[in-house]
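Q: Could you fold this chain for me?
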Amino acid sequence: MENYRTAGLNKGETHKEEMEQNIAVGLDIGTTKIVAMIGRKNEYGKLEILGIGKSKSLGVHRGVVNNITQTIQSIQQAVQQAEAAANVKIDDVTVGIAGQHIRSLQHSDYITRTTSDTVIDDDDIDRLINQVHKLVMLPGEEIIHVLPQEYKVDGQGEIREPIGMYGGRLEANFHVVVGQVSSIRNIGRCVQSAGLNLEGITLEPLASANAVLSQEEKEAGVALIDIGGGTTDLAIFRDGIIRHTAVIPFGGNVITEDIKEGCSIIEKQAELLKIKFGSAWPGENKDNEIVSIPGLSGREPKEITLKNLSKIINARMVEIVEQVFAEIKNYGHEVQKKKLIAGIVLTGGGSQLKHLKQLVEYITGMDTRIGYPNEHLAGNSEDDLTSPLYATAVGLVLDGLKRQERKKNEFRQSEIVEEENIETTEETQEEEEQVTPPKERLSFLDKLTQRVKDFLDNAE
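A: Sure. Below is the predicted structure, expressed as structure tokens.
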């Protein structure tokens, strides 16, 4: 495989070279594992994974960094593995943020325009969104993401895209995602100290959604449940727009802990038991099914019935699913207009638990499927990569590629403008005023990435 490292080029050429190489790196900093994934688009527009590195996550608890040094080491380990597999040097990474500090709220706001004789443009929408950013938050919290749901112009509701319309008062309902800014800066610090450049920050539920959901599901209404080691992330889509997000501070690790306590065995054995024999549905196991576990240091082996094991798993899983279902009800799923027709999609490592799909359907009464990130992956990808375990990492690589595509377009446009230096006549100006193409607006996650970068640069 060719090495994409650029050497001995001037800045402009390096930039071009980087733009052409089209590889992106997703870094999923989870509670149980850290995954570095290198990918690029193949000629069919599908994602080809060049290399993947995985290390045990030692300094992260429930999605929040609690030991900087250990997290840096785990990141470096995962990155080195991925570099060796792909024979590519990694510089820029797209990182996912999640964790128990993230919460969301619904908010409505409006602006009054100075004149209603001109059409609504990007600046009006930016002004409205910036106003939402002035909301007073709890100490240490900051708004991470502002997602417009629907607009109203002069009292006329249910408008998806107000640009180009006339009106004096512009209102919108927003889905606002809030998080602890110190937690996000700590992740940025770990990435930077591991010798990497923070190219982008993405909300992990959004990354997972991009990897496993189809556009039809997002339109029809769907709830994505990403069951990780430390947290369970929820993202609800309807009409193609994200409507609700939540992070429940429980995941697969709590189940392992319960098995460890309930069966009086060590954590390693509990994890193996859960993966190999665990089931979320106690009725599936017969009373006489028994598994024998070696005793510690010459002690007698322990015998555990699979029925008891699945009872322990079921109790905790019911609790997690009920909390998620409460969030789905908070969004308003029971209202006809907000119904999630496509039901639930389960992903993440925890979704591989046997009979979990049946349990979720039983509790919620909603159609459920397991989400595999294979929709965007090239056909020759290894089976391992299509596991729900890697949904977030695949989503982060896709996000990184999308960012590159945007940069490449900006780069091309700036080159065209420099070369041609077009003189625009008054006539064409008038035409442009009549039909203004929507300009690429910086997302708040891009702005957040920039703010975290600036903070880290100044903190050195």
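A (continued): The CA atoms of residues 129 and 175 lie 11 Å apart.
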